[in-house]
Design a protein that fits this description.
It holds the Pfam family PrmC_N. It catalyses: L-glutaminyl-[peptide chain release factor] + S-adenosyl-L-methionine = N(5)-methyl-L-glutaminyl-[peptide chain release factor] + S-adenosyl-L-homocysteine + H(+). Keywords: Methyltransferase, S-adenosyl-L-methionine, Transferase. One of its GO terms (biological process) is methylation. The protein has about 270 residues and is of the alpha/beta class. The chain folds into 2 domains: about 60 residues; about 180 residues, Vaccinia Virus protein VP39 (Rossmann fold, 3-Layer(aba) Sandwich), CATH 3.40.50.150. About 35% of the residues lie in helices and about 20% in strands. A 7-stranded mixed β-sheet has the order 5-4-3-6-7-9-8, with helices on both faces. A two-stranded antiparallel ribbon has the order 1-2. Strand 4, helix 7 and strand 5 form a beta-alpha-beta unit. The chain is elongated, with a radius of gyration of 21 Å.
Length: about 270
């Protein structure tokens, strides 16, 4: 069967099973299988796909049709154009977290104190910061051993980033940080069963933010008082106002609130004045 026909049939199958962006999923699965760039598939439409590869593709496509995230099937996710290993033990990085990274950069001192990434997951924030600021010490913490193992794999070759087990700041080094960055769980517990089936493949530990979605964000803000200069948070829809109120009561000065591409306040940066 020729590649063009395989793509067409795969797209139809995924569409029938309610997969979002079925053509894109089909292209990524086939491109990874052939170890080529996705757009290069269009130069190979008339090439035949060997039966053994076709059978492997069928297995991958069935997984995708069941709702399994494309990133788990591929074994990696893209973040700022860079590949990071992900597994079902890790949250899949989203474009919103790229906003968090970009917005904190102007506040950072390349020669300053360490930076801490809380709830690091597969390590994207900590690793990108370590790459951008090779003179700085970066820490990434998470309470999931399995996620930390993936983060350490992603950080191979970097000497200025350390990952450690910690529930918020409980196990983090007791030092002053120039910035604490965090993409913590912020989905209200009651929403979890109603999430799209694809998201429900991700670890509940990385999604469930408690009754109002802000349990861990508030907990971090309380623990971080006086321990950092800047606190940078990714937040959920409708959480900007209550989180700002909580931060102000704790002595923070909210410096910046940034919307995502849908116009939802998504990133909050506050200065610790305690």
């Amino acid at each position: 069967m020729k590649i063009g026909e395989v793509l067409s049939l795969t797209t139809q199958y995924l569409h029938k099973h309610g997969v979002d962006s079925p053509r894109l999923s089909a292209e990524w699965l086939l491109a990874d299988l052939l170890a080529v760039k996705r757009l290069d598939l269009y130069l190979r439409f008339d090439q035949s796909l060997p039966e053994e590869l076709l059978e492997t593709l069928r297995t991958l496509v069935r997984r995708r049709a069941r709702g399994e995230p494309l990133q788990y099937i591929q074994g990696y996710a893209l973040f700022r154009g860079q590949r990071f290993t992900v597994t079902p033990a890790t949250f899949i990085p989203r474009p919103e977290t790229e906003i968090l990274l970009e917005e904190i950069l102007p506040f950072l001192d390349p020669q300053g104190p360490p930076i801490l990434d809380v709830g690091t997951g597969c390590g994207v924030l900590a690793i990108c910061l370590a790459q951008m600021f090779p003179q700085l010490t970066i820490f990434g913490c998470d309470k999931s051993d399995a996620a930390l193992a993936v983060a350490k794999e992603n950080a191979q070759g970097l000497g200025n980033v350390t990952f450690l087990e910690s529930d918020l700041l409980d196990g983090a080094p007791q030092i002053f940080y120039q910035a604490i960055v965090a993409n913590l769980p912020y989905i209200p517990t009651a929403w979890i069963p109603k999430l799209p089936k694809e998201i429900q493949w991700e670890p509940v530990l990385a999604l469930d933010g408690g009754p109002d979605g802000m349990r861990y964000i508030r907990g971090l803000a309380e623990q971080a008082r006086g321990r950092c200069r800047w606190l940078a948070l990714e937040i959920g829809d409708g959480q900007a106002e209550p989180i700002q109120t909580s931060l102000q009561k704790l002595g923070y000065h909210v410096t910046k609130l940034v919307e995502d591409l849908r116009g939802i306040p998504r990133v909050l940066i506050a200065q610790s004045c305690a």
